[in-house]
Amino acid sequence: IGNSSVLSCPLNPNITLLTWKISPKVGGPCNLGYRADTDTTGRTNCSDSMNWKFRPDLGLALEIQQVGIAQEGNYTCEVVTPDGNFHWTYHLTVLVPPRLSLYCDDRGRPVCEAAAGKPPARVSWLLESNSSLEEERHSNGTVTVLSRLAARSTNVTDTTCMVFHPAGNWSESIAC
């Protein structure tokens, strides 16, 4: 989330027409087109965050700037050449790293929260296993995972929460 993403069609020196057909999760479809004989581009219903990007190693690629959850969806590149028509489809999935917080509740129990991640984070405790787990799903597709230790060993002064997510892994320790 927030980064730029570049999707490319395989290079073909004999392109007649190239079209990106975009079906995002939020909002209506949009199209970007390139016509080789006139060296012109066009767009229909696409936001300013979607643009052509030309690089010799990528050819005519699609760049999505400031990727957000709304841009998730299917991106199909259609290429017309004298040899035929070719299609490549990407399914864009956006990762949202959770916000980690670790605190002591009013009963003195450690609570580990991985807020608003996509997909949901996995939360576990180092050296402790007696915990409860709650998930809260948000309308934007993110999920908050909350883990609360039910009991603590008397010989442990610090408790460490570990959060695992495709966007990264984190750990924090606390003494309640």
TrEMBL record:
Keywords: Disulfide bond, Glycoprotein, Membrane, Transmembrane, Transmembrane helix. GO terms for biological process: regulation of neuroinflammatory response. Residues 112-175 form the Ig-like domain. One of its GO terms (cellular component) is external side of plasma membrane. GO terms for molecular function: signaling receptor activity. It is a single-pass membrane protein. It is found in: Membrane. InterPro entries: CD200R, Ig-like_dom, Ig-like_dom_sf, Ig-like_fold. Belongs to the CD200R family. This is MOR1B protein.
